[in-house]
Amino acid sequence: MTRVSCSLVSSSSKKSHQEVLDRYRPALAFYENTYRAIHQNPELSLQEEVTSSIAAKHLKHLGYSVHEHIGGFGLIGILRNGNGPTVLLRADMDALPVLEQTGLDYASKKTMKDANGNQVPVMHACGHDVHVSCLMAAAELLYAARSEWAGTLVCLFQPAEELVAGAQAMVDDGLYTKYGLVKPDIVLGQHVFCLHKAGVVALRPGPILAAVDGLKIRVYGKGGHGSMPSSCIDPIVIASHLVVRLQTIVSRELEPGKIGVVTCGKFQAGTASNIIPDYADLELTVRSFDTKVQEQLLDSIARIARAECDAGRCPQAPEITNIAHAPATVNSDSESKVLKASFVKYFQGNATSMDPLSGSEDFSILARAINRPYIFWGLGGCEPVKWDEAKKNGNIGEIPGNHSAEFAPVIEPTLRTGTDALALAALTFLG
Asked: Helix, strand, or coil here: 136?
């Protein structure tokens, strides 16, 4: 894997990173209002038209060379500033089909049609509104600070992260071939979490997020009248046994110390209470950090699905389709240590480490596609007093987290910290 030369890491700027950030950080009131506006107007994956246009308009106004509609509503802003390394900063834009219950005065009340044509509530329940706002602010800071660094800065706004599809879509649509973009020397990104309090950045070398596979399993039966089950083959009963049996893979098949998750999050079958349907559909999310564990989980799911269908006398084998995939996020070791030193120097006690999470991201695809190092860190979002009280009482796990209808990162100091972290990371690796 290509490594960023240590000579590129040592800043040649006349000022310290602290001085650069303090001098060039823009007034954040504009970005706080931008955050509220984006939060009130979330957009589902592959429908991020307005959010994308907000980011594009902002980058154009600043003076970036902007290229839109990459892999859908993805876009990049390129700022060339002399000879030096190329650094890519990434933010994702899409929201989730969740009915917001935060009680915020800027809470989303929006609905949209999903990919299946269903009208659903939409919420920024994973903090991508924070990511967009922070990158917009960091773009202004780094543009204003052009005299303090040399190289090329790329600000990338990605669609469809929640489908773990947007990064690959941008790569496949010519991200690194169509726009005269020098392949980045390093790819950088962050994600807001409420398991850390606002003002904190959390970074660790090595594994940080799990690989994900999304599976759809169709269990076939023989439909008929609900009053005559003996003349039918009930796929709902068979699929129910399958859901329960799948839970034994992690508890009974994985070696102690190995990490894996198998969750059935969607179970759909039938149209009426008195009709046994012809099939039942399950959708699973499968998480792992290790390739061998990933293979074991997928093999076991297929084996159990076939066995349950055999036991239930299904007329045909189950249909198993992989509907999503993203690799594990494994931070580049040496570059992460360099950035961690920058974070510690700047954020001091608010720079910490974090344990690997079983959540997943497609962020690393942006770097893996061109064999470049990458770093992904956590950004605290929980109101500090609330977090301290939860820690004191031993119930941090009860703070509403990502994908919760009550997920509500506090605006400040989250936005300032996220803006500074992105800008500091870029300055650490630019010339």
From this structure: helix
d(CA 147, CA 60): 20
**Of 88, 89, 86, whose CA–CA distance to 152 is shortest?**
86
Kindly list the catalytic residues.
94, 161
* Over residues 34-42, mean pLDDT: 98
Cα–Cα dist 135/156, whole Å: 9
Q: Strand 279-288: give its sheet, edge to edge.
A: 260-269, 279-288, 211-220, 319-326
How many CA atoms lie within 13 Å of 343's alpha carbon, on the beta-carbon side? 28
> 103-119, pLDDT tens digit by residue?
999 999 999 999 999 99
Q: What share of the chain is helix, strand, coil (3-state, %, to 5)?
A: 35, 25, 35
Report which of 138, 150, 156 is spatially closest to residue 90, judged by C-alpha positions.
156
pLDDT in tens, 262-278: 999 999 999 999 999 99
Task: Locate 148 and state its tokens.
Answer: 């303090």
280 C-beta neighbours (distance < 10 Å), count: 24
The tokens for 413 are 């100091």
Is 90 exceeded by the pLDDT of residue 12? no
Residue 15 has pLDDT above 90, yes or no: no
Paired tokens of 56: 């594009």
* Alpha-carbon torsion, ordered 215, 219, 224, 225, to 10 deg: -70
Give the single-character DSSP code of 330: E
